[in-house]
Write a structure and sequence with these properties.
Blueprint lengths: L1 E5 L2 E2 L4 H15 L3 E6 L1 E3 L8 E4 L12 E5 L4 H13 L3 E4 L6 H4 L3 H16 L4 E4 L2 H9 L5 E4 L19 E6 L8 H9 L6 E6 L7 H11 L5 E5 L3 H9 L3 E4 L8 H8 L4 E4 L6 H4 L3 E4 L3 H13 L2 H18 L2 H17 L1
Parallel strand pairs: 1-3, 1-6, 2-4, 3-5, 6-7, 7-8, 8-9, 10-11, 10-13, 11-12, 13-14, 14-15
Helix pairs in contact: 1-13, 2-4, 6-7, 6-11
């Protein structure tokens, strides 16, 4: 099968880039002829088996795919890609990757509604299938009136060889990994942290500062007198990121809304129990006994943090092991690749 993936930018810290590149790598390894078209940024690089093209549109590309997979929708790059597929009568799959969730429409409201109504919606209706990463996104897409096959295939992760040890240590770590930005609920996390007895624990915030938002958190930390109890690592990648996960004892994601949250997968793969809000699609944390799926707000978060800290190292490690088992049974990149190729075959047959 000849597969062409299209995404405007391959940013290193982007979950969309990870889904595309890791899928493309495994598709190529399985013998498929795989191409990748991008316009800017080439940070998350695929393997040499994947043919890479750069351009503002796919018009004129020297690659004739059987199926096209377009990732994200809020750019003229994606619009030209959909138009190219329609004009050439090629089957194509759209992955909005959370771009059409209700919260997204609230930003630059009128401009986005106009762009969506005039360009995105008419072209997306021509897609043979729509891929989403979680059930809430499928519901949101359906409510927008799309009636094509909507397929739920999550993001994936590679199971790391090293995981958290769960051994006793002088200071334990409650870890957040992600952008240091307003939508992550970090002020709420700091306030909840102040409400509990965290003796013997540190709160670690790992990730890149987004538009200078760290300065806002610094002020809140100063106000709450947490300067000695909160650690910022900045952006961590590669082995440094692995070390952060392996040295942590519990993971927290206080975001009021997330479409999928690949960092939850990464934490579970490293045998960390996870605290996440019900604004994320992680009901499985409770179902499989590997974390806390909590209501939004400071009080529910404080309770979950208090309970997590109150457990023994052995209890947290047992939860973490159940989380890693969950990842191994349905969230590896190999399983994601198989499900994606099955979707392509269905699309081509239709």
């Amino acid at each position: 099968m000849k597969i062409l993936h299209i995404l405007r930018g391959l940013e290193q810290t982007s979950g969309i880039s990870a889904f595309l590149v890791e899928n493309a790598n495994r598709q190529a390894a399985c013998g498929h002829d795989v191409g990748l078209l991008y316009e800017r940024y080439f940070e998350y690089r695929p393997s040499q088996r994947v043919k890479v093209f750069k351009g503002k549109t796919p018009f004129g590309i020297e690659f004739a795919p059987d199926i096209v997979h377009i990732h994200a929708v809020w750019s003229f790059f994606s619009i030209f890609a959909m138009l190219w597929c329609v004009l050439r009568r090629m089957p194509f799959v759209i992955s909005p990757h959370g771009c059409l969730m209700p919260s997204v429409f609230g930003k630059k409201k009128w401009l986005k509604k106009m762009f969506y109504s005039l360009l995105v919606r008419p072209l997306m209706r021509k897609a043979t299938a729509i891929h989403v990463t979680a059930h809430p996104e499928a519901v949101a897409i359906h409510k927008l009136g799309f009636r094509q096959n909507i397929e739920i295939i999550p993001l994936g992760v590679d199971l790391p060889p090293h995981t958290t040890s769960g051994h006793e240590k002088a200071v334990r770590t409650m870890l957040f990994m992600g952008r240091i930005s307003p939508e992550k609920g970090l002020v709420n996390l700091l306030q909840a942290w102040r409400q509990i007895d965290f003796t013997g624990w540190k709160l670690m915030l790992a990730g890149p500062d987004w538009n200078g938002y760290k300065a806002v958190l610094d002020e809140e930390i100063k106000r709450l007198r947490l300067a000695d109890d909160v650690i910022f690592t900045g952006s961590v990648m590669g082995t440094a990121k692995e070390d952060v996960y392996c040295n942590a004892d519990c993971f927290v994601l206080p975001s009021p809304m997330e479409n999928f949250s690949a960092v939850v997968l990464e934490a579970l793969a490293h045998t960390l129990p996870v605290i996440a809000t019900k604004g994320t699609p992680w009901e499985e944390l409770e179902k499989f006994g590997c974390g806390w799926w909590i209501d939004q707000g400071m009080e529910p978060l404080s309770r979950a943090l208090r309970e997590a800290i109150g457990q023994s190292d052995a209890e947290r490690l047992d939860m973490g092991k159940r989380g890693r088992e969950l990842v191994a049974t349905g969230y590896t990149w190999d399983s994601v690749e198989k499900r994606t190729v099955e979707l392509y075959k269905k699309v081509i047959n239709e």
